[in-house]
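Write out the bound-state structure for NAP.
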Amino acid sequence: MNLIPSLFSLHGQVAIVTGAGKGIGRACALALAQAGADVALAARTQADLDAVAADIRALGRRAITVAGDVSDEAALDTLVARTVAELGKINILVNNAGGAGPNSPLKMGGAEFSAVLAWNVTPAYLLIQKTAQAMREAGGGAVVNISSVAARYAQKHFSAYGAAKAALNQMTRNLAQDFGPAVRINAIEPGTIMTDALAPFLTPERKERMVASTPMARLGQPEDIAAAALFLVSPASSWITGKILGVDGGVEAPNF
Ligand SMILES: NC(=O)c1ccc[n+]([C@@H]2O[C@H](COP(=O)([O-])OP(=O)(O)OC[C@H]3O[C@@H](n4cnc5c(N)ncnc54)[C@H](OP(=O)(O)O)[C@@H]3O)[C@@H](O)[C@H]2O)c1
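---
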């Protein structure tokens, strides 16, 4: 028997991916579907979700779209309920929706700062809480939280985003203690990934500088993160939980 391909197979499994309309979330959803999973796609823009769902159905997998804001707890309840009702169970959760640009610590007020913390941490916490029972009933599950290298770099203008992703990392480590052995919970720290979220900040000069300071001599693609996410939700990583995986081209210091 050829064991290795089966370790990366998600055949018969059901996944939820948030922020699945574009960028890293889209790439994760497609990778999980290519590995055999049916996928519930969540984001706010229905047209983006429809396009990703069509790509997944073309692969022969099932896809449902659940448009909503992850900051709205009722939308998370709907996402979980519809996934179980329409796809039958939940094995995998990718908490990808999140983000924030650079902030000025002299200008950003408390409400805005709190909003960055809330958006990047609380939906992931709630979705893990709300899917854990379904995962247990499905015989076990795996969660990947999409964090950022900003969680571990000390750099100017990232006090809000860096704090939020550092909190997401520590929540990942602690929840892995709470929910094992039935549910594994890990996080990925992407380096700079070429997505729409990055585009407004990426001048040609800045890109050249960043590539020059990246050991792997290129910026990341969404598929680089999707491949790591596939590993962390597949049986290949069945003895890994509560860990933070850097997928960053080898960058060890801020280069933004
Ligand atoms: N790109 C990078 O260099 C990089 C680096 C490190 C970490 N990350 C992390 O990777 C994750 C994805 O980033 P990305 O670059 O792929 O972003 P992106 O290309 O802008 O895609 C973000 C996706 O999330 C959805 N989304 C945004 N806000 C949402 C909300 N409130 N509720 C539900 N869905 C929402 C967006 O769709 P709608 O707007 O239609 O909702 C979109 O589908 C984020 O957590 C980010 O912090 C990115």
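---
The chain has one domain: 3-244.
The helical segments are 3-7, 23-34, 46-58, 73-87, 110-137, 159-179, 204-212, 222-233.
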